[in-house]
Design a protein that fits this description.
Elements lengths: L1 H36 L5 E7 L5 E7 L6 H4 L24 H9 L7 H5 L4 E3 L6 H4 L6 H5 L5 E3 L12 H14 L2 H17 L5
Length: about 200
């Protein structure tokens, strides 16, 4: 398993460095559009739970108003997701450009920095915010965190936000228990049509 882990790490680095050259103009363009659309920083960072339950800063393009985190407590009663997730279909904190970035998954692109830093992999369970996952740190939560979190995973290609939160945990554990390089490749290939088709995006 250690050999597979190193091969996967090598693949992540090569893929990100190669793909980074191609998507650099996209990153610059998206950053420019965000800066002209609303006030606030271009990038958004948040504490997420990673490998072995260790917290790290995840990077995303900002898709909400600058004070979105402070407004969250006022919207707790409107949460529409099940399990360890907070999600509102028509979240009033999302900006006009942010809604497009989320539906196209372009907001996730800055996480290639997390992959290069070794905090994430291209494929793995999605890292959840610390507050969302706090009640699930034990039991299956520990098994879920026995691998690096990913930019995409089995849950994302199985319906993304259309799949309930409870289903997310089930699929993540299934991935951890049967993961392989071949499975990662299949998930990566399935991610492309899911993103292009915006199926289950939010």
């Amino acid at each position: 398993m250690h050999g597979v882990r190193w091969i996967k790490r090598l693949f992540d680095i090569v893929a990100v460095l190669t793909g980074g050259i191609v998507i650099l103009p996209v990153l610059l363009l998206v950053g420019l559009i965000i800066g002209t659309d609303s006030q606030g920083p271009i990038l958004f960072k948040q504490r997420r739970v990673g490998l072995h339950g260790e917290d790290f800063w995840i990077f995303k393009f900002r898709t909400m108003v600058a004070n979105a985190e402070t407004l969250r407590s006022d919207l707790t009663c409107c949460n529409e997701a099940g399990g360890p997730l907070f999600k509102i279909e028509n979240d009033p904190r999302i900006t006009r450009v942010g809604r497009f970035l989320r539906r196209s998954s372009l907001d996730e692109l800055p996480q290639i920095l997390n992959v290069l830093r070794g905090e994430m992999s291209l494929i793995g369970p999605r890292p959840l915010p610390v507050d969302d996952w706090e009640p699930f740190r034990n039991g299956l939560g520990e098994e879920r965190h026995s691998v690096l979190p990913g930019m995409t995973g089995l849950w994302q290609v199985s319906g993304r936000s259309l799949a309930p939160g409870e289903r997310m945990l089930e699929l993540d554990i299934a991935y951890v228990r049967s993961r392989s390089l071949w499975m990662d490749l299949k998930i990566l290939l399935r991610t492309v049509p899911v993103v292009l088709g915006r199926r289950g995006a939010c």
